[in-house]
Design a protein that fits this description.
By secondary structure, the protein is an alpha+beta fold. It has helices at about 25-30, 50-65, 110-125, 140-150; strands at about 10, 15, 70-75, 75-85, 95-100, 130-135, 155, 165-170.
Length: about 170
């Protein structure tokens, strides 16, 4: 297994840690809050049962090397404030998609930029990915800025068959 032991990541202000069942209230909030999900089409987790199932699925998929999902915490507080993952890993293990969400209370503080830099480094240096993709709505200016700030470039030739509002960005390892 690639993700055993779990790849704990630390940055200046953050700890990116393994998901825990006890995080279910925050998972539920992040997957149901209208502000967080304004530009995202995904399944929600309104109930405790659904949120726990989401966490268990993430842990199972990590055990099967299908994704790696970090829960974002401030160093001084182990409470989850967001998540970031590498998923949709290609069969040849050269491409993965990055996904992320964050409690709006922490928006505009550079937290997701800091987390993304750590995950990109992990993806390229440890997983030896050649490319990381990101799907985001053309209306989500905050996400678009975050991706550009991290070096992602729009792939004008690729479209998202599941969501025509999405634009696909790529970051190629050099």
């Amino acid at each position: 297994m690639i993700f055993k032991p779990f790849p704990l990541l630390k940055t200046q202000r953050l700890i990116l840690r393994e998901p825990q069942i006890a995080d279910w209230p925050v998972v539920s909030y992040l997957r149901t809050d209208s502000t967080v999900n304004q530009f995202v089409k995904r399944s929600s987790a309104e109930t405790e049962e659904e949120a726990i199932e989401f966490i268990e699925n993430a842990l199972s998929n990590m055990a099967n090397d299908k994704l790696v999902n970090w829960f974002i915490c401030l160093k001084e507080d182990p409470k989850m404030i967001g998540s970031i993952c590498l998923w949709n890993i290609s069969e040849d293990r050269k491409t993965a998609e990055i996904g992320y969400d964050l409690n709006p209370e922490f928006w505009g503080k550079g937290i997701m930029h800091e987390a993304m830099q750590a995950v990109i480094k992990y993806g390229f240096e440890i997983l030896a990915l050649d490319k990381i993709e990101a799907y985001t709505s053309y209306e989500n200016s905050t996400s678009l800025c975050l991706l550009c700030k991290n070096g992602f470039k729009l792939n004008k030739k690729k479209t998202d068959a599941d969501n025509p509002d999405n634009r696909i960005f790529e970051l190629i390892r050099f």
